[in-house]
Write a structure and sequence with these properties.
Elements: E1 15-19, H1 38-52, E2 56-60, H2 73-83, H3 96-104, E3 110-112, H4 121-124, H5 127-134, E4 139-142, E5 164-166, H6 168-182, E6 188-192, H7 201-208, E7 213-216, H8 221-227, E8 231-232, H9 242-255, E9 258-260, E10 264-268, E11 277-281, E12 284-285, E13 290-294, H10 296-307, E14 311-315, H11 328-339, E15 343-347, H12 349-357, E16 366-367, H13 371-378, H14 384-387
Parallel strand pairs: 1-2, 1-4, 2-3, 4-5, 6-7, 6-14, 7-9, 8-12, 14-15, 15-16
Antiparallel strand pairs: 10-11, 10-13
Helix pairs in contact: 1-2, 8-9, 10-11
The protein binds adenosine-5'-diphosphate (ADP) and magnesium ion.
Amino acid sequence: MNKKTIEDIDVKGKKVLVRCDFNVPLDIETKTKITDDRRIVGALPTIKYLMEHGAKVILCSHIGKTKDKQTLAPVAKRLAELLNCPVPFAGDVIGPDAKAKANALKDGEVMLIENVRLHTEEEKNDPEFAKELASLAEIYVNDAFGTAHRAHASTEGVTKYLPAVCGYLIQKEIGIMGKALENPDRPFMAILGGSKVSSKIGVIENLMEKVDTLLIGGGMTYTFVKAMGGNIGDSICEEDKIDLAKSLLEKAKNKGIKLVLPVDTVVAKEFKADSEWKVVPTNEIPDGWQGVDIGPETVKMYSDLIKSHKTIIWNGPMGVFEFEAFAKGTNAVAKAMAESDAVTIIGGGDSAAAVEQAGLAEKMTHVSTGGGASLEFMEGIVLPGIAALNDK
Ligand code: ADP
Ligand code: MG
């Protein structure tokens, strides 16, 4: 970790603009009740540190999409409850209310400004808007890992005008995932699943340079199986990625990486929760059936492999985990990882959701909070919101 953190700077008496990820889900009917406050809870350590060290804390975030024009007011209310202190809410972002409330802050106090995406300039990374936003404060802290892969005004633009450091959430994300990618305890294994090869090409290619073992699961399995000449029945397959799958298999062989495909597969007649299903060898899927989960033999094999590795990164469910009947493979892999003593890291939105759903998130070394951002990080892409922060 070569980026400065909040502990590397003096914040006392300073106005500190903190970019949080308060993009929390709201109830559909009224859009005023927060249905899951984990992102707010996750931001508390950074906020509390700054308050305890005498900063004047100005929080900002986006919520929803630009077109939604959603207010952050419910978040201010929830923050006040969690922090047990007043959290004044400015009804604008760079307008008179935000400026007045920011100037009225005393050391150790906190406030929240309105949704930065009420301005279309936010996602355009408009320099004038970024400058106005920056003018609210003297220091900038980024703690929104989930949007760090986007160069927006509040994630990247502001860093041109203020000293910029990371908060605890980003520090943890890049500390743990960065170590795994740069200097992992070996043997190092990646487990990759999800629906498509095409959405994971970057991840596979980057991890192939680093891992000792690569386990494949999920929908992308069948493109690999077809590349090897197996029968995949009606399973999802990306015809235009078969050559790529072949070259990845070849590359793994040349590099001496153990690339493992499921030996057996749960196949379903229909893509439905209550479909008829059975277990068949992965390369012998009959026509009229489609692969929806890894089979019991594969579960055993993958669980044993998990036991013998020291670092494990997992991205992409092993099957259609949204249907209970086809979540067994995903849950079993989650369980094996939870029971292992290895460094265990989960990246990707659906994978994190699967681990949460299985109630095993607490048992992992790290469940990344950023879906797209964690994927890009695993692809080895430099995230603009992190690159822009000051080096140590
Ligand atoms: P992540 O968000 O963790 O990166 P992905 O978005 O790549 O993961 O993949 C998750 C999706 O993959 C899930 O919706 C799951 O239903 C789907 N999936 C997994 N296995 C299969 C399969 N065999 N056939 C079709 N879809 C699958
Ligand atoms: Mg996904």
